[in-house]
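hiii, so i know i said id send this last week but things got crazy w the move. better late than never?? heres the sequnce for the chain we talked about at the cafe, plus the structure i predicted for it. fair warning i was half asleep when i ran it
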Amino acid sequence: MPLPRLSRRLRLPVGAVLAGACLAALVSAPAEADPPGSTTDRALRSQLEQLVRAPGGPPGVIAVLQRGESRRILRAGTADLDTGRPIEPTDHMRIASTAKAFSGAVALRLVDRGALGLDDTIGRRLPALPRAWRAVTLRQLLTHTSGLPDYSRSPEFLAILQADPHHRFDSRRLLDFVAGQRLLFRPGSRYQYSNSDNIAVALMAEAVTGVRYEELLRRLVYRPLGLRDTSLPQGFEMPEPYMRGYDVPVEPPAVPEDISELIGASGVWASGGIISTPRDMTRFIRGYAGGALISRATLREQRRWVDGASEPAGPGANKAGAAIFRYTTRCGVVLGHTGNTPGYTQLIAATPDGERSLTFSLTTQVNEATKPQLLKKLREVEENFVCALLRD
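okay and structure toks below
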């Protein structure tokens, strides 16, 4: 959901800052050596290079395709315009709204354990929140059918961010910015992507466990999936090494501006504050989409699809589940999530059994509001990568 554009001086591309939430070598893991390259690989690499060269395109892009234990890494451009260093799968990045899938993972694991129920309401679990929201259920929060007003569109929130992009918000009070507002529609009656939803999900998880959300992530997601380079910070600093994120104007002669550390994570928290790497995100989506974290019964509930798209829209036709999206392409179906935030755009996807996966990361923000033509091209390229992933 696009927001007004701020500026680093101040020109910060916060259009979709919280929504919701990549010409070098082709390498093959684990050897990390340049293979001869198939016709398909050469075509895919060419498409990445075209994205880098496109008006407003990313200085760098990396895609990781994995089938079983076989992994291919394709990349174009650079992780750092000053040094020319190529992007590595161990480089840190802001994962934007793909962090919403992590909050879904926490919540659904708690559902499996009986600590939470998909029909639990805000009124029951978070009685301090506005009375007008009391009927909203966990299921509706996870599927963006809650009707909660989006705190990230609040004029007060945006004014604070405009004045100080490094402002340290109280992440657990972000919903206070819209506490005086009623629901936008009757819960469950329609779909509308809202960053408030996943803040409420994290607060529910904390309420039933008495454990901070950051620790729940470590216990319920990072450790089971072996994620070693993933964290949810409060500040603006990026851990080394990281792929730098840029504001890339569509019109020359303006030059890309490094905005990697422009915004702190406290104002996005469970809706988009996680920092991770392509390697960890590959591990995550294979486990999450493939059902490794939850029971078959809970998995069936997660995959009750409704009309709705991720932000930005993913490849093919989009449907929304509980903190996951179904992308139906011309070559088949993958499940995952997208995200965009200043400096970064993400897609993570895997087959429903988790055996084949794709992570696709750009070092600039691309969405419908700021770069519609580039987003159209990006979705076409993403679909081609999905086809390469699914092709036998």
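btw The radius of gyration is 19 Å. thought thatd interest u
miss u guys!!
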